[in-house]
Design brief:
CATH architecture: 3-Layer(aba) Sandwich
Distance between the termini: 31 Å
Oligomer: single chain
Shape: globular
Strand order of the largest sheet: 3-2-1-4-5-6-9
Bound molecules: NADPH dihydro-nicotinamide-adenine-dinucleotide phosphate
CATH topology: Rossmann fold
C-alpha cells in the first residue's frame, strides 16, 4: 500500500471529524507520511489540530488545510483553484462531507433541514466532483471516493430526505463510473451502516443523550473501520475498481 500511495495528493472534505478525520490518519499511517494532504471542513480549529498531529507524527508529510463549506457551491471551484501549487494536482478525492438532520416524518420536516441536506450531500458533493474530475481525466489518473450510505440503498421512515440524498449520490456515482469507463480514473463508493461519529449528534441537533441512545443494544462500527476500507480501495492495483462496498456492524442486516 505504501508504494502505491507514495507522493499522492489526497483531498478530504469533512476532515474535521469522524470518517474524514480517521481517513486522513489512515492514509498518513499507510503511506508512512509520504503523502500530501488537503484537509477541508468548516471548523478550522479542528483541521489545525489534525494537521499539527500529523506533521508532528510524520516528518515527510505535507498538509494544507483551510475552510471549505461545500454547501456554498460557488466557493468550491475557488477553493480548488487557490490551492498552493504543490497540492493542486489531486490524485485522490474523499468526497465525504455530509449529514442527516432530524428524524421527522414527511409533513413535519423543516425546510431549512431539507435545504441543508441537499446543499451539502448532493449539490456540494456534485460540485466537488465537477471541480476536480477534469484535472484527473487530463492527467490520466485519480480516485474519487464517494461516501454513500446504507440509506442510499434501503430507505427508512424518519429519514426520507437523508435517504433521498444518498440515493441521489448513488445514482450520480454510478453514472459517473460509466462515463469514465476505459479511463484510469476510478470511482469508488463506500456505503456504511451505523458508524459512531458526530453524525448522530448532528442528526439530533446537538443532543448528545439522544445521539448516544441510537447505539444502545448493538455495537456500531467506528470511523477507523471505514477509513481502512477507503485506504484499501485506493491502494489496489491500478486496474482494479472496488466499485461499491456495503459495510455494517454485526447488529445490522
Ligand atoms: P461527522 O458528523 O463526524 O462528520 C461529518 C463531517 O462533514 C465533519 O467533518 C463536518 O465538518 C463536515 N461537514 C458538515 N457539513 C459540511 C459542510 N457544509 N461543508 C463542509 N463540511 C461539512 O459524520 P461522519 O464522519 O459519520 O460522516 C461522514 C460521511 O459519512 C457523511 O457523508 C455521512 O452521510 C456518511 N455516513 C455516515 C454514517 C454514520 O453512521 N456515521 C453512515 C453512512 C454514511 P464541519 O462541521 O467542521 O464542517
Amino acid at each position: 500500500a505504501a508504494k502505491r500511495l507514495a507522493d499522492k495528493v489526497i483531498f478530504i472534505t469533512g476532515a474535521s471529524s469522524g470518517i474524514g478525520q480517521a481517513t486522513a490518519r489512515e492514509f498518513a499511517s499507510a503511506a508512512n507520511g509520504q503523502i500530501k494532504l488537503v484537509l477541508s471542513a468548516r471548523r478550522l480549529d479542528r483541521l489545525k489540530s489534525l494537521s499539527d498531529e500529523l506533521t508532528s507524527s510524520y516528518k515527510n508529510i505535507s498538509v494544507y488545510y483551510n475552510v471549505l463549506d461545500v454547501s456554498k457551491i460557488a466557493s468550491i471551484p475557488v477553493f480548488i483553484d487557490s490551492l498552493p501549487s504543490e497540492f493542486k494536482e489531486i490524485d485522490i478525492l474523499i468526497n465525504n462531507a455530509g449529514k442527516a438532520i432530524g428524524v421527522d416524518k414527511v409533513g413535519s420536516i423543516k425546510q431549512d433541514d431539507i435545504n441543508d441536506m441537499f446543499q451539502t450531500n448532493v449539490l456540494g458533493m456534485i460540485q466537488v466532483v465537477q471541480s476536480i474530475l477534469p484535472g484527473m481525466i487530463e492527467r490520466k489518473r485519480g480516485d474519487i471516493v464517494q461516501l454513500g450510505s446504507i440509506a442510499g440503498r434501503e430507505p427508512y421512515p424518519g429519514g426520507a430526505i437523508y435517504c433521498a440524498t444518498k440515493h441521489s449520490l448513488r445514482a450520480f456515482t454510478s453514472a459517473l463510473r460509466k462515463e469514465v469507463v476505459n479511463s484510469p480514473v476510478r470511482i469508488i463508493e463506500i456505503q456504511p451502516g451505523a458508524v459512531e461519529t458526530e453524525f448522530s449528534k448532528v442528526r439530533y441537533y446537538g443532543d448528545e443523550k439522544a445521539a448516544k441512545k441510537v447505539y444502545e443494544g448493538g455495537e456500531p462500527l467506528v470511523a477507523e473501520d471505514i477509513a481502512e476500507l477507503i485506504v484499501f480501495s485506493c491502494s489496489r492495483r491500478a486496474n482494479t475498481v472496488i466499485a461499491e462496498t456495503l459495510v455494517f456492524p454485526t447488529c445490522q442486516a
